[in-house]
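Request: How about a record?
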Amino acid sequence: MTTLVIIRHCETEGNVRGEMQGYYNDSAFTEKGKDQAELLLKKLGTEKINAVYCSDLGRAIKTAQVISQAHNLKLIALKELREGNIGDWRTLPVKEGIQKWIEYYEAEKKKGVHREDIRPPNGENSFDHQRRIMTAIKKIVKQYPKGIVVIVGHSGTNRVIIGTLEGKDPDDFYKISQDNACINIVKTDGVTSKVILVNDTTHLQK
């Protein structure tokens, strides 16, 4: 089975300010974020890792580079691993944007609209996000059937991967906690999966 080591990017200034970085935006690491990168390296620097993948957004790339460089591996950045696209609400603060999406989603369901057809204006829903991400994950698992692969993503991206491999309903994906620089471990062959670790941050305790 493939061992997926799934990591959320380190803390950014946008995270602290509560900004919706999401599918498009980025910001620099905080000092805490820089420390988290060093602690991730300390945790994973000597592990046997076969490949390192990440979202093509800067905060994921900077986090992943710390690990790929330590293992002399080429970093592979994929647009498919980006955060969910909340569309026209992407300029709102995180809490406001998410609340707006939830209210809209629930209101549309009450109207009888199939949930797969409910999307933020010019954005994507959980089902779109899932298809985009899992297409990439299936290819990675197929390429490294017995390898250890690091994937650096975002809170939403990681929740989709873990939730899908756990067999959760897409409405429940975002209930999974994902702190900055956390580590998740899932073993999978693409058909059956075993979740070993979720949202572990013990490596961040100095």
Observations:
- Residues 39 and 204 are 6 Å apart (CA to CA).
